[in-house]
Amino acid sequence: MKFQSILDSITRVAVPFNRNNLSRLVERIGEARYVLLGEASHGTSEYYRIRAELTRQLITEKDIRFIAVEGDWPSCYTLNRYVKGYADSGASAADALRDFTRWPTWMWANQEITELADWLRDYNEGRSDEEKVGFYGIDVYSLWESMDEILKYLSAKDTGDLAAAKRAFECFEPHDRNEQAYGISASLYGEGCEDEIVTLLRRLQDKWKAAHPKDQENALSAEMNALAVKGAEAYYRTMIRHDTESWNIRDRHMVHALEKLMEFHGQGSRAVVWEHNTHIGDARATDMAEEGMVNVGQLLREKHGEDVFALGFGTYQGTVIAGKAWGAPQEEMKVPSAIKNSWEELLHRTGAEDKLLIFNSNEPVLEEFVVGHRAIGVVYHPEWERGNYVPTRIAKRYDAFIYLDQTRALAPITVGSLSSS
């Protein structure tokens, strides 16, 4: 009875999806300031291409000011400089992706992103700096890279902040650029560097407001790198003992970084956010809430309400890029058909075609019933498929959903030297 009710609701709500009816979704997004675009894996081509096409429409029709992604600030800032046409930012999009050397490199170093980057560069050409659309990373993993960027920026400035930064970073030197070693030392032995980083962040905070107009974004970048160091320090310090706490630190950091970017771009600015479904779909509509976990979608909805729009994605079967373990070589893996009575299998059962669902209160079944919803991470084992489903009240988790019956792996490109830290 439960599943038949869900099937009936899907039949009433779903419409065939194709690239030509994205305008219907754009209309529903309306004037939302935070447009959250999810993905059910970090290695599926269609998720990237559809998000890119939707993002282009939102930029041209809704005046989106920037894209924020589940990536590191330093490497994304290199790409940001390229799409804005800044000097010495790379001769091509592939060249601008050179800093995406941290595993999993394929998340951003892929053909799908190079095509979006080239479109952004063409769009930004001839526009003022204030009108150019940016591309930024808001994640927490870039502990050492962000420290390097802060020192590089401050070395070009004649201020006392450089000496303060060097003093703060001396605290990290005994750990030889090893996050796990730092986490163990900070968590188990109380030898952390939190106070030093907080002090440095206070020195750099809001310096962009007084900077020369041509240097405002670089000053912002120094602060965002300090914010990333602060977030990374807390993340690695807590992950040794507390999985839930480290997750919450990470998602709270991403919200903080996103709001700082909103402040920089001015009152009324609007952004598109690219992250996994597990980050952008409201955690309160999943079993994450029972674990004490929060996420970006929940935190933004709690604070900004109707100014937030969340779009989820899913597929029935196909292929994906992932690794068998953290730091393992990337592989093209088969995504098996969705398990029976999962959200994806129910969508497939109503017809093996792509679908768009825009949720409304007229279908309470989709808000009330809990159904498994597939989530594939950068580490994936198709043979353990049942462990990849998140119990979800789908219409509470997202405002809309794109279902793709068959999907394929994205196309990674090779850049630089690989780091799996």
UniProtKB/TrEMBL annotation:
<dbReference type="InterPro" id="IPR014622">
    <property type="entry name" value="UCP036794_erythomycin"/>
</dbReference>
<dbReference type="InterPro" id="IPR007815">
    <property type="entry name" value="Emycin_Estase"/>
</dbReference>
<protein>
    <submittedName>
        <fullName>Erythromycin esterase family protein</fullName>
    </submittedName>
</protein>
<dbReference type="InterPro" id="IPR052036">
    <property type="entry name" value="Hydrolase/PRTase-associated"/>
</dbReference>
<dbReference type="GO" id="GO:0046677">
    <property type="term" value="P:response to antibiotic"/>
</dbReference>
<dbReference type="Pfam" id="PF05139">
    <property type="entry name" value="Erythro_esteras"/>
</dbReference>
